[in-house]
Amino acid sequence: MHPKNCMTWWPQTKAPFLLTRGIGPLSIFLLTILVSPVFGGSPTHVCVAVRPSFRIQRDSRLERLFNNRRGWIGGDAVDSVLLGNNRVLWIFGDTLLGRIQGDERVINAMPRNSIAIQNGLNPGKAKITFYNGSVGDQPMAFFRPNSGKGWLWPGQGGIRTSEGLYLFLSRVETIPDSKGPWGFRTIGMVLIKVTNPDSDPTQWVIRQYPVPYYSRDPGGNERSFGTPQAQKGSWIYLSGLNYDKKAKNRYLLAARTHSERLENFAAWEFRSLGTWSHDFRKAERLCDHVGAELSVSELPGLKRHLLITTENGLSERIMLRTSPAPWGPWSPAITLYHAPEPLRDRWILCYAAKAHPEFSQHTRELIVSYICNATDPTKLMKNTHLYLPEFLRVRFTHPAGCNGFLLP
């Protein structure tokens, strides 16, 4: 093993997005909030460490579950929640509905979100069923805001507790009198509660709660919380994001609650200056250059929590940090995986990297997904491999030290 300089976060320039009027913007909100930090940033940590040791294989069995020829033929965000009884919920953002004709997509509709239920944790034997909403014969999003104003986008994960299934979604609306493809804004976060998640999704009883811990100032700086982790003792930990528009940087925050009723917002606490506060505005920045989508998962074999995110939110680099606790301190970032798709085609972009620990088969293994999209929308029709989840099976062989933090 040779020492390695752990200096990361080099700014990169990406191609502008090209959008088609025929199918509408593909995850326009997600890409909007992701693209801003790509152009800024500088290294925040420099260390000398032993080269981390891990092996990565593509998980083609999981990928095959999503290779539909008709109906659901693509979607991004790709959150997963373990429901119990060998059932897994998948949640998708902007969704392509239609069919595969020959080697091309025929897209009939694009609802803002959709879901799927996977029965069986072994992807080679599992069965998966996709669901979207509808009004009459018109396909619609599965989750829609109660007031009818705006729409809901996933990407912030969820958790099953003894009280039900909880999902976090961003609430988005069109900016009045706006022109062009970027005329959208986030207006809040919504906590979805499904009181009967063991039933078929067509029979779900769904309640919605506005999350009070969202803020956006006139300068465009945002704070939000969601992305719950697996329950740890009596606590449920959640991740938050603080976007600094001037710095073009997004920072990780942390929250926790001792109540399995996540809608009991009075029980939430926020990591602040080494302790916990009930004021979410005091939540401290724990590390930087994270994407708008991420995951924090505990890996028992390493006795560490792993933060997985796309570098700056939009990049071919999937980044890894580790920590002894759900809130940190976080190690310097290293590149876990360099997605090859943008290197083969300059029109392709990658984002939404996150982990799915429910599919791990070993205490030092983690399943990671990411999404490939295209700035040329015609490629989404001609390349049926785009806009589907890409899965990696990462096996860590041993930990190594770096400035007091443990890296895999």
Describe this structure in words.
This protein has 408 residues and is mainly beta. The protein has a single domain, classed as Tachylectin-2, Chain A. Helices cover 5% and strands 46% of the residues. The chain has a 6-stranded antiparallel sheet with strand order 18-19-20-21-22-23, with no helix packed on it. Strands 13, 14, 15, 16 and 17 form a 5-stranded antiparallel sheet that branches. Strand 19 (222-228) and strand 20 (236-244) form a beta hairpin. The protein is globular, with a radius of gyration of 20 Å. The relative contact order is 0.17.
Short structural summary:
The protein has 408 residues and is mostly beta strands. Helix content is 5%, strand content 46%. It has one domain (47-407): Tachylectin-2, Chain A (5 Propeller).
List the helices and strands and how they pair.
Blueprint: E1 3-5, H1 28-35, E2 48-50, E3 53-58, H2 60-64, E4 70-75, E5 79-84, E6 87-92, E7 95-101, E8 104-109, E9 114-119, E10 127-131, E11 133-135, E12 138-140, E13 151-153, E14 158-161, E15 164-174, E16 184-194, E17 206-210, E18 215-216, E19 222-228, E20 236-244, E21 249-257, E22 268-272, E23 275-277, E24 294-299, E25 304-310, E26 317-323, E27 334-338, H3 341-344, E28 348-355, E29 365-374, H4 378-382, E30 389-398, E31 400-402, E32 405-407
Antiparallel strand pairs: 1-2, 3-30, 4-7, 5-6, 6-9, 7-8, 9-10, 11-12, 13-15, 14-15, 15-16, 16-17, 18-19, 19-20, 20-21, 21-22, 22-23, 24-25, 25-26, 26-27, 28-29, 29-30, 31-32
